[in-house]
Structure formats: structure tokens, C-alpha cells
Amino acid sequence: MPLRESIYTIPINDLFSEKCGCPLCRAAAIAEKRISDFILGPAMMEPDIRMETNRLGFCKEHLSFLANHKNRLSLALMLQSRIKEINEEANAKPKALNAKLGHCFICEKLEIAEKKNAESIVRTFSENRDFRELFSEAEGLCFPHYAALLSAADKAGGKAKKEFQKAALTLFKKKSDKIESDIDGFCAMFDYRNNTEGNDFGELKNAVENASSFLSADCKEF
Ligand SMILES: [Zn+2]
Ligand SMILES: [Zn+2]
Questions:
Q1: 219: CA distance to ligand 1 center in Å?
Q2: In terms of Cα–Cα distance, which of 27, 42, 45 is closest to 109?
Q3: Closest ligand (CA of 105)
Q4: Start-to-end Cα distance in the chain
Q5: Distance from the Cα of residue 209 to its chain's centroid
Q6: Nearest ligand atom owner, CA of 15
Q7: DSSP single-letter state for residue 94
């Protein structure tokens, strides 16, 4: 049972029908959950998936993500076979061990999904006028996903490219200006000249988390 694309790519209209947060961050969160459910569930004993997870392993973030999954035995079995493979290689070809580090099965699939989603957004935008309106109604785009859409638009070219770039920039600015003014406001709260000591941070209390999410494609506003 190979990991079908449909598991980790999401129909574009569904992605944009929810208005909250960055649509591509939402896609990544959905895909991350689906991939984990798949590899710890129905695909747990699938030799081709196991071969890939043995070879690539998982990054620190995704190991803790998997560790919070209800299916602990599946994770234990995957880790068991990866450790066995690492130990076999340590005996047979110790110099080749480095190749087994620095990868992540889930990150790799998410990268593929992000590219496909970005291409599909650009294509749908150029082919479907109704979608342009839906696109412009999104709450905003985080920085890495704005960049991903621009590079997909560059690759696709075509007549709608300029219009797409303009619409994507508008979405990016919807978020980036607010992020800047919130982080300005947050920093100003620490300036004694503003007499803010003891004041409530109010809306600004999440300014640091929001700026970090915006800069690292980790938007959790959904
Ligand atoms: Zn995003
Ligand atoms: Zn990862």
C-alpha cells in the first residue's frame, strides 16, 4: 500500500473555504495528521513504507508528534526496525551511517504536498475566475507559504501570473503589516518611557508567538 497522494494533498476549494489562518499552513497540519495516522495505522506493516521510514527516520519535531499518537506500539515497531537497520549498517558499513541522518519521512512528504498544493493553487487561479474571489478572501499568507506560491507562479508562467502575484502579495500584506504592528506594540510595552508598567498586554500578548508562526510556516489559527 503506497502512500497515495490523495492522503496528503487537499482539494484546493476545501482549503480556501475555511477563512481562518494561512491556507497552506492548514493544509500542512491536515497532511501531517493524515500521514501519521496512515503510517501508524493501516500502513504499519507495509514493507515499502517501512523501508522508507527505516532509511529516512524522523526529525525531532515529528518524533515527538508521533510519540503523542495513541498508537504507541506502531511507533515502537517502526523505531525497532530502524534501530536494527542502523545497527546492521554500523557493523557492515560504519562509514555510510551518516547518510541515515538528517532526513525525515514526514517532512519529505510535506514538502511534496506543499509543492503540489502551491502548483494547484496557481493553476486553479489562472483557470477559474470564481476561485480568484475565494483566494482573495483568505485571512492571509505566512511568509514561507507566500514564497512557495511565488515560486510556483514563476514556474507556471502564463497570462495570469501578474494578477496572481498581486493577489498573493495582498494576502501576504494582510498578515505581515499586522504582525509588524503587534510586535512593535509588544516591544514598546517594555520601554519605560511609555509608562506601560503593569499594563495589560491585551491583544499583544501573543505577538511573539504570532510573529514566530508567520516567519516559520507554523500558523495555528485554525
Ligand atoms: Zn503558511
Ligand atoms: Zn520532520
A1: 6
A2: 27
A3: 2
A4: 31
A5: 16
A6: 1
A7: G
Contact 152, 121 (CB under 8 A): yes
What ligand is nearest to the CA atom of residue 28?
1
The rounded distance, in Å, linking the Cα atoms of 59 and 111 is: 14
Q: 162-213 pLDDT, tens per residue? A: 999 999 999 999 999 999 999 999 999 988 787 777 778 888 999 999 999 9
Q: How many CB atoms lie within 10 A of CB 94?
A: 9
Task: Tell me, in angstroms, the distance from the centre of ligand 2 to residue 55's CA.
Answer: 14
**92: CA distance to ligand 2 center in Å?**
27
User: Which ligand has the nearest atom to the CA of 104?
Assistant: 2
* Ligand having the closest approach to the CA of 22: 1
Q: CB under 8 Å to 25, separation ≥6 — which residues?
A: 142, 145, 213, 217, 218, 219, 220, 222
